[in-house]
Amino acid sequence: MSVQTSSRLSIENAPLLKTKIPGPKSKEFLDIQDTLETSSRSYTSFFRFAIDYGKGSTVVDMDGNVFIDWFGGVSVLNLGHGHPAVMNALKSQVEKITHITEVPTEARIKYLKTLNSVLPGKMKNNSKVHMTVTGADACEAAVSLARYNSKKPTIIAFSGSYHGIAGGIVGATSNYHYRDYAGFSSQNYVYAPYPYPYRFSSKTKPEDISKEVVERIVEMIRDPYSGVPPVGGIIVEPVQGEGGYIVPPDDFLPMLRETCDEHSIPLIIDEVQSGIGRTGKLWASEYQNVTPDIMCISKSIGGGIPISSIVYRKDFDQIPKAFHLGTYRGNPLGMAAGAAILDVVKDEQFLERVRSKGRYLLKRFQEIQDNSSIIGDVRGRGFMVANEIVTNKQDKTPGTELAGKIRESLFNKGLLMHTCGHYGNAMRFMAPLTIEDDLLDTGISLFQEAIKETEVKS
Ligand SMILES: Cc1ncc(COP(=O)(O)O)c(C=O)c1O
């Protein structure tokens, strides 16, 4: 389709492996890293190489080996490596200014206007933006804002959720004023089951899953003996990311929206991973026409520059000065990239390709599943697709170790593909949205080979 083939971004004929992996140069870098950097790293235990550069949906290691990138730096590179629109925006911004906190710049104004013009539903051109730095930082700001507005302490999250690793440090900050709304104890979170069709109780009919989940939530809110203190916000991923690329039934978000409205509870939709076109709409919540009260945005908005934001209803803006702080909020480079990225991704033709290629991917993965004893479930929306690996299709025993082996086998074949899921057993497709057709097909063939080889060995 025209949108992506107009000029090729990736290296031709990938993958192209010239050495054993890791090659000698990569090995040298990995050894130095092992000596000097924390041993708590995890990605370098399975992606054993050192990177020289990236181009589109390919990366080149220090030994000149070319890999297909279905990883995108954990879903950060929706436009791939070195997209011209992003590079041009960054280059012109870097000449101007690279940091100045909160003061308006051309990049900031463009980002604010562009973002507001593409927000979902009633948020469009009708929202306030608060700058943050990472996904976790945005989610922290979102729950603080929900609690501040609702004046209630408890946040409902979901099983399988991932909203980041942060929080707590405000407790060491001496001005107690900040602790009034930021930073609160983990006891202020409760969890409802996420509607995970593959692993939801078999006693529940598929069409009743959302109803059952929402009924439990309503019970938590209404029943004074539920054990849950008053609920001041619900935070949800419209398609769950780290939890396993789980697509909830279509009636789930609308039912959640209705429940929040009935009980005057702010609905926070976390689009950190599912946003910026990942599911084939700019925001995943647009599939159900649900408008959040607060929305979290990060990862692909900065094209690799750490930046995040929350956007929220204007009437939530009665908040004190310095409500959620952070020196690096709203980095000009990230905002310049962000406006350029939104301009590319909002294009309906671009998004339509993601949707149609997403359907194609599901079909191809389902064909592989039909002939496989270890792919229990294939699911996804747009370019957020997972194959859940099991050791036994009947009892759905999670194949965590098998998934690790598949990832390793793919890496050695020149394809970067990572896992996710409750049990780390879902192979997830999160390639750049700009990936060329041939790199999809080559990747699928490599995936099929890796599945077959793993089945034979297991
Ligand atoms: C949905 C979602 N929210 C929040 C986060 C946290 O983002 P960060 O790692 O930038 O803190 C992630 C990270 O994977 C995520 O997937």
Characterise this structure.
The protein has helices at 2-5, 24-36, 43-46, 72-75, 84-94, 106-117, 135-150, 176-179, 209-222, 252-262, 332-345, 348-370, 400-413, 437-457, and strands at 51-55, 58-61, 66-69, 127-132, 154-158, 189-192, 231-236, 267-270, 294-297, 308-313, 375-381, 384-392, 397-398, 415-416, 418-420, 426-429. The chain has 458 residues and is of the alpha/beta class. The protein folds into two domains: 2-70 and 348-457, Aspartate Aminotransferase, domain 1 (Alpha-Beta Complex); 85-345, Type I PLP-dependent aspartate aminotransferase-like (Major domain) (Aspartate Aminotransferase, domain 2). Strands 4-10-9-8-7-5-6 form a seven-stranded mixed sheet, sandwiched between helices. Strands 11, 12, 13, 15 and 16 form a five-stranded antiparallel sheet that branches. The protein has a four-stranded mixed sheet with strand order 1-2-3-14. Helix 6 runs parallel beside helix 11 (332-345). Pyridoxal-5'-phosphate binds next to helix 7.
Highlighted features:
16% strand; Aspartate Aminotransferase, domain 2; binds pyridoxal-5'-phosphate; alpha/beta; 2 domains; five-stranded antiparallel sheet
How would you summarize the topology of this molecule?
Layout: H1 2-5, H2 24-36, H3 43-46, E1 51-55, E2 58-61, E3 66-69, H4 72-75, H5 84-94, H6 106-117, E4 127-132, H7 135-150, E5 154-158, H8 176-179, E6 189-192, H9 209-222, E7 231-236, H10 252-262, E8 267-270, E9 294-297, E10 308-313, H11 332-345, H12 348-370, E11 375-381, E12 384-392, E13 397-398, H13 400-413, E14 415-416, E15 418-420, E16 426-429, H14 437-457
Parallel strand pairs: 3-14, 5-6, 5-7, 7-8, 8-9
Antiparallel strand pairs: 1-2, 2-3, 4-10, 9-10, 11-12, 12-13, 12-16, 15-16
Helix pairs in contact: 5-11, 6-11, 9-10, 13-14
The site of pyridoxal-5'-phosphate has 14 residues, from helix 7.
